[in-house]
Amino acid sequence: MSAVGIKEVAEHAGVSPGTVSNVLNRPEKVSAPTRSRVEAAIRELGFVRHGSASTLRAGHSKTVGLSVIDIGNPFFTDVTAGVEDVASDRGYAVLLSNSAGSRSKEERNLLVLAEQRVRGVLITPSDEDPARLDRLRERGISVVLVDHPAHRPDQCSVAVNDIGGGETAVAHLLSGGAAEIAYVTGPLTIRQCLDRRAGAERALGGRPLRVVEMAAMTPRAGQQAAEKLISEGGLPDAIFCANDLLALGMLRGLLHAGVRVPGDVALIGYDDIDFAAASAVSLSSVRQPTYQLGRVATELLLDECDNPATHAHQQIMFQPELIVRESTR
Amino acid sequence: MSAVGIKEVAEHAGVSPGTVSNVLNRPEKVSAPTRSRVEAAIRELGFVRHGSASTLRAGHSKTVGLSVIDIGNPFFTDVTAGVEDVASDRGYAVLLSNSAGSRSKEERNLLVLAEQRVRGVLITPSDEDPARLDRLRERGISVVLVDHPAHRPDQCSVAVNDIGGGETAVAHLLSGGAAEIAYVTGPLTIRQCLDRRAGAERALGGRPLRVVEMAAMTPRAGQQAAEKLISEGGLPDAIFCANDLLALGMLRGLLHAGVRVPGDVALIGYDDIDFAAASAVSLSSVRQPTYQLGRVATELLLDECDNPATHAHQQIMFQPELIVRESTR
DNA sequence: GAGTTCGAGAAAAACGTTTCAAATTTGAGT
DNA sequence: ACTCAAATTTGAAACGTTTTTCTCGAACTC
């Protein structure tokens, strides 16, 4: 198998293993001629550093974990792309975990990340419980919350103002003349869903909001919600969906049932995924700086890992942006 | 930090470290009373196994690498979900790399995977060059090709018949009465693009195929292709796009230019991503068993890793399925 | 009962790096 | 040339597991 280690390289270059390690980790500590001799040996022998040995001795790895709620959602895909780009630029690998909305799966995934001794974890937590994250932090694993504001000052987070976003969306629906409004959402245990509802209610200023809670936030669930809405109590004037996946499913369900959008019902989603603009009736939505979310979170995390001394924890909050298209015109 | 290792657990349980290791790895070798004593100690001390130490000594890890071409493409997201599910079920972690179509980035990612001593690699190669994969295999890292047929019998692969898919798509367009057909594709260095073109040409049986090659396979590129098609030589009767992302962009570009689909031009995509059905004009497409692709590939890989003795290499080829919707009616 | 087998657990030697103090070389200043 | 400090390199001891060999005693066989 892979018989060539740092030792063989050292021998081949006529130096000690320690020097090879220095070439690998602190090249500036090694004189130019020795360095190039070692580098040549590395190349000739096809040496590949054994990451585990390195991690074991050094006490920390060059990997970060990323735990998302739904890898199938383009929102998270975009975040992932941002994370990947920054991490890979700085020489880190990304260990991806998908919790698929299941708390126990998330727990299992975090255990795997802890076992791998990742340097840090980027997580969109599926619930509020901070205990699991504390356990990671106790082990010296930095944690940055993604798309979730931190409640504590000793914790970095990158989030988007969901209350504001919900308010903007519903205010927009109201300004279009809607009176009765429905909010179609995923599980109300999810903070994003809660906050967007809170924003919606704030925009309504006391007037009632009809809430339809679905178990998932997928196009399929959106379509089911359409049927539910139609069969139970009839259609409202306007519908606010907690994400675009739900909204696209809703749109499909409505059109399928012969409902005109926006003629009979106005519809707005959330996230402004790429496909929102291309749908049957182009979808109004609330845009989030998704890719940027991933980038900034990773920069924060790696800063915390690489410069623990100077690192200042930050809770960053982006503002979402209303995108108006056909579905609310 | 994480001061609690196997040693502390051993002491706390009144056994030797070796026994703790046995509880962890071969529980059946340990008598029931000792085992439960050790398990209790593990729980009480909050012990988490150090994956790197384990990998170092054991010589292999519990991670597999997944290298995809574009994590932003729902096709790969679905594959990833399949991989994740199987891997996580069998106790493996997934190291995700996105090559973003760049050969050099793919190379760098593979190096990282090699350094991490992943047990195996699932890869959708961005080009034909088998040398890089051979280098992995030399290091004892199993490789399974995803969405790419293997040319060699000592190599597992899971693919979908792209020639057949291309042929089916174009045959369908022809049966709809189209005479002149355009093929809008990504870089023709990509096998999938080539094969689908080959299939298209086979369906045409010698009649000419107008090929528009774009640098990327994104909605943006698709929209640009629409402009290009309109400005350069006018519209064909029907358009076959190498994937749905291109097709959705194309659709948008066409509608934007006032072209009616399918009235003026028929349009078919490839992959049948979720959003194809929800687009402005619902999109005909060629469906691939995407999630299944990921699952099967991972099962093959883990079988190769866990039972190297009995493992038989397989080259699996799925058949795609034509999905007819409005855009070709 | 003596001889044998068997199972459970202990002890110690790896695995391939990094790290740190110590040793050596180099170079500048006189 | 000679000294002293700085720069470079060395060598050996970790890091936390797994694995292999060994010991000890109990259970079995005749």
TrEMBL record, chains A, B:
Annotated organism of origin: Planobispora takensis
Protein name, as recorded: LacI family transcriptional regulator
Keyword set includes Transcription regulation: yes
Keyword DNA-binding on entry: yes
Record keywords, A-Z: DNA-binding, Transcription, Transcription regulation
Cited PROSITE patterns: HTH_LACI_1, HTH_LACI_2
Native organism taxonomy: Bacteria, Bacillati, Actinomycetota, Actinomycetes, Streptosporangiales
Domain (HTH lacI-type): residue spans on this chain: 4-58
Alphabetical list of Pfam families matching this protein: LacI, Peripla_BP_3
Molecular-function annotations in GO: DNA-binding transcription factor activity; transcription cis-regulatory region binding
InterPro entries: HTH_LacI, LacI/GalR-like_sensor, Lambda_DNA-bd_dom_sf, Peripla_BP_I
